[in-house]
Design a protein that fits this description.
Blueprint lengths: L4 E4 L6 E6 L8 H16 L8 E5 L6 H7 L2 H10 L1 H4 L14 H9 L5 E3 L2 H9 L4 H5 L21 H15 L6 H4 L3 H27 L4 H17 L6 H12 L14 H13 L8
Parallel strand pairs: 2-3, 3-4
Antiparallel strand pairs: 1-2
């Protein structure tokens, strides 16, 4: 019924119509006379309310003739009416002709023709640049990554699993239980490794947020999957302790050849951090 993309104004019944034409040349009036006809007819029939705004969207934009018409609502109405029988009457529905007469003509004469406009292609591209889908489609590189904040002093709720697994790994290597961080601080090597692991985890979390803001939603999951596939055999290999498994896996992650949009903005710390994210998500453990 002449609606391609419908956008409702939040909290109201008002709506905007985006009429899309994937043509190889700028849109001409003859390309869209029937669209004006559909809008008038179906809104007159009560299928939907007359929209507040109506935009033409096309890769080559609108041509000069159509642009001139939609800039002058009265001229546009007159043009649609004069071309009705040629472009609209028999093409609005497949079941009947739609003559422009009677109450329908009165309705069309009172309709607001100032709602029509177009979005130039360059404006569409600039709007698209602000979305996570721009770089995969057009390239041009990712923006610079923001500075990474250090881990907070206290463990957060998103750190419960991987930090517990680290304590288990240290206990396995020591042969004695490391019950909590206070006990851990008595063992400098493990304590330093724990702090570096938290830095790596938060670095990877910042990379996840960066990906969310600049790439399609599944991109970061794809990166995690690439790293998982690259280290899973190391995880399942023979190691003298969980700590040795952990260090072997994180070291292996730094040697992986990864083809991904995020690689240009990744740090070595991120790769280790992704391993800890995978532990947090239950993909593997250090002590098997």
């Amino acid at each position: 019924m002449g609606r391609d993309i419908v956008a409702f104004v939040r909290g109201s019944s008002r709506w905007h119509n985006y009429q899309c034409k994937h043509y190889s040349a700028p849109i001409t009036p003859s390309d869209v006379y029937v669209e004006f006809g559909k809008l008038l007819y179906f809104s007159f029939q009560g299928a939907y309310e007359y929209p507040e705004r109506y935009f033409f969207i096309a890769p080559r934009g609108v041509g000069t003739k159509l642009d001139a018409l939609i800039s002058k609502p009265q001229d546009l109405r007159a043009a649609v009416f004069s071309k009705w029988d040629q472009y609209c009457r028999g093409k609005i529905t497949s079941t009947q002709d739609v003559p422009l007469d009677g109450n329908f003509r009165k309705y069309a004469e009172s309709a607001d023709f100032s709602i029509f406009s177009s979005v130039p292609p360059i404006k569409m591209i600039e709007q698209h640049r602000a979305t996570p889908y721009y770089v995969p489609r057009f390239g041009g590189g990712l923006p610079q990554r923001p500075a990474i904040s250090p881990p907070p002093p206290n463990l957060g709720p998103n750190e419960v699993v991987y930090t517990s697994e680290l304590l288990n790994a240290y206990s396995d290597d020591l042969g004695t239980k490391v019950a909590d961080i206070q006990v851990l601080r008595k063992h400098t090597n493990y304590s330093d490794h724990f702090d570096r692991s938290r830095q790596a985890f938060f670095s990877a979390e910042s990379l996840r947020n960066f990906s969310r803001d600049n790439l399609p939603v599944q991109s970061y999951t794809e990166l995690q999957e690439d790293i998982f596939e690259g280290v899973v055999d190391v995880v399942k290999g023979e190691h003298s302790s969980g700590y040795k498994r952990c260090t072997a896996v994180t070291q292996a992650s730094k040697c992986l050849q990864i083809s991904h949009a995020l690689v240009s903005r990744m740090k070595q710390l991120d790769r280790s951090g992704v391993c800890h994210q995978l532990v947090e998500e239950g993909r593997f453990k250090w002590v098997l």
